Amino acid sequence: MAGGAFEDTEAAQRAHLYEHKITSYFIFSCIVAASGGALFGYDLGVSGGVTSMDDFLKRFFPKVYRRKQEHLNETDYCKYDNQILTLFTSSLYFAGLISTFAASHVTRKKGRRASILVGSISFFLGAVLNASAMNIAMLIIGRILLGVGIGFGNQAVPLYLSEMSPAKIRGAVNQLFQLSTCLGILVANFINYETDKLHTWGWRLSLGLAVVPATIMFLGGLALPETPNSLVEQGKFDEARKILEKVRGTSNVDAEFADLVDASKAAQAIKHPFRNLLERKNRPQLIIGALGIPAFQQLTGMNSILFYAPVIFQSLGFGSNASLYSSLITSGALVLASLISMAFVDRWGRRKFFLEAGSEMICYMVALAITLALEFGEGKTLSKGTSYFLVIIIFLFVLAYGRSWGPLGWLVPSELFPLETRSAGQSMVVCVNLFFTALIAQCFLVSLCHLRYGIFLVFAGLIFIMSCFIYFLLPETKQVPIEEVSYLWAKHPIWKHIVRGST
User: Fold this and answer.
1) Least confident among 76-85, 268-277, 331-340, 383-392
2) Are 244 and 228 contacting, i.e. CB atoms less than 8 angstroms apart?
3) Which of 500, 433, 341 is nearest to 6 (CA)?
4) What is the DSSP secondary-structure string of 50-91?
5) So what's the pLDDT on residue 8?
6) Cα separation, 284 vs 375, whole angstroms
7) Average pLDDT estimate for 417-426
8) What's the mean pLDDT in 27-41?
9) Could you report the per-residue pLDDT of 470-483, keeping only the tens digit for each?
10) Which DSSP string corresponds to 394-435?
11) Which terminus of the chain is less hemmed in, N or C, by CB atoms within 10 Å?
């Protein structure tokens, strides 16, 4: 049965019988659901910008502000090394990490749509609290509520998009989540650039405008249909069939619906999905989808650049406005990269994007490290030529990440898990992803302070390791129906020895 055993059964031969049309109902559902990525993206963009604003620092982190002013036009690795300041960023991700386990229960029992609605409400409340914050405690509590929102949203949205998509275009559709995230980052950087000019209260506007994507996600969520996979999982077979016919634009959905029902029967037999993840037959999904890819996505060093792009550029001596402008350049690169990936991921496949972009990212990190080693630190003022070179290197790195580990870090895990462990598996994905996101957020600036340019060599080494991980362990999943991905493991040269004989 789909998602269960690995023998060649009748179910394994149904994929060629799937039919679909691209309907307006399908397009609406996917665009609205993908807007959940804007929550994650807006926060990624806005938090780095706000933590570089003078008015924000003077009110909540005066020591950091004074240190910044003393070295305003000089390079200084340690200018922003303050653990409370980084806690402002990382507290959100620790909260998201914890909340994703509650999100798993809601997603499985109540559906993907329910988690999307819960996430939008929590994010809205967090934005309101942050915008009205009078002390650090209010800031941190607001960030925790934002984290709960992201925990629920990131758990449900990638699953929703993968389950609603026909296999032939699943890669492009799932990457609407990444595109929405990138657009959120880009908009946040534009807003930061303007609100930085509104002295004493501009940072409040930046944080408060997070209510906009939360409101869009909530209102859109009310109109969303539940996925057929989730409805079948809840035993609502008639409703699931109607939704599947409406989404696919045809009444000839017998083969796909049969796969959903088979997967549901396997799911109903699983009483403890998290424990089931540890079983031998699910070892590939656990190692690749739940642990490897979400951890490695953060260990590329990309989110360090996104969190602190304004901070990095100020530390490089660019000045306040120039740093925010440079951040607009990097976030624009992310949007461009997402469009490239969406256009070609279902044609070229996941592995090629991972491996080609990974080799580029290694070169850019090494170039960045060498340049910083020669030109950066000890009170030096960077030349214009060196500054522009660093911006170009970061732009190219972001472009490579944005078409590979960025979108594929969410797409591939959402494809790998069978229905019986899909909600639990996605919770593990979000949990591991947010754990390493929080870890990098909390440790990056102190690591930059102590390791200096060496931190980028560390990231280069990690990218080499993760590229080897992909090369040896990940099979190609392009255009494979989501309920039949599990059959790939039995044909893989390494995994077939592990899953063989499992039931």
Assistant:
1) 76-85
2) yes
3) 500
4) HTT-HHHHHHH-HHHHHHHHHTTTS--TTTT--HHHHHHHHH
5) 39
6) 44
7) 85
8) 89
9) 999 999 999 888 87
10) HHHHHHHHHTTHHHHHHHHHHHHS-HHHHHHHHHHHHHHHHH
11) C
DSSP of 179-248, one letter per residue?
A: HHHHHHHHHHHHHHHHHTTSTTTHHHHHHHTTHHHHHHHHHHHHHPPPPHHHHHHTT-HHHHHHHHHHHH
What pLDDT digit, counting tens, does each position of 273-316 carry? 888 888 898 999 999 999 999 999 989 988 666 655 555 666 55
DSSP code string of 117-171: HHHHHHHHHHHHHHHT--SHHHHHHHHHHHHHHHHHHHHHHHHHHHHHS-GGGHH
Residue reference for tokens 């934002």: 146
Report the C-alpha gap between 238 and 499 in whole angstroms.
Answer: 34
Which two three-digit tokens encode residue 467?
């590229």
Dihedral sign for Cα atoms in the order 383, 386, 389, 394? negative
Which SS3 state, helix, strand or coil, does residue 473 take? Answer: helix
Percent of the chain clearing pLDDT 70 (strictly above)? 86
| pLDDT reading at 341 higher than 80 | yes
Distance from C-alpha of 326 to C-alpha of 365, rounded to nearest angstrom = 18
Q: Classify residue 493 as exposed, middle or buried by CB count within 10 Å of its CB (0-12, 13-18, 19+).
A: exposed
Structure tokens at 134: 């009078």
DSSP 488: G
Q: What angle in degrees, to the nearest 10, is found between the helix axes of 176-195 and 36-50?
A: 30
* Alpha-carbon distances, residue 442 vs 25, 90, 203, 425 (angstroms): 42, 6, 21, 26
Residues 256 and 17: their CA atoms lie apart, in Å, by: 8
Q: Report pTM.
A: 0.79
> CA 448, CA 193: separation in Å to the nearest integer?
25
State the first-to-last Cα distance of the chain, in angstroms, to the nearest integer: 11
Task: Assign 65 a pLDDT band (cuts: 50, 70, 90).
Answer: confident
DSSP for 315-348, please give it: HTT--HHHHHHHHHHHHHHHHHHHHHHHHHHHHH
- Residue 323 structure tokens: 């740093």
Alpha-carbon distance of 125 to 387, in angstroms, equals: 40
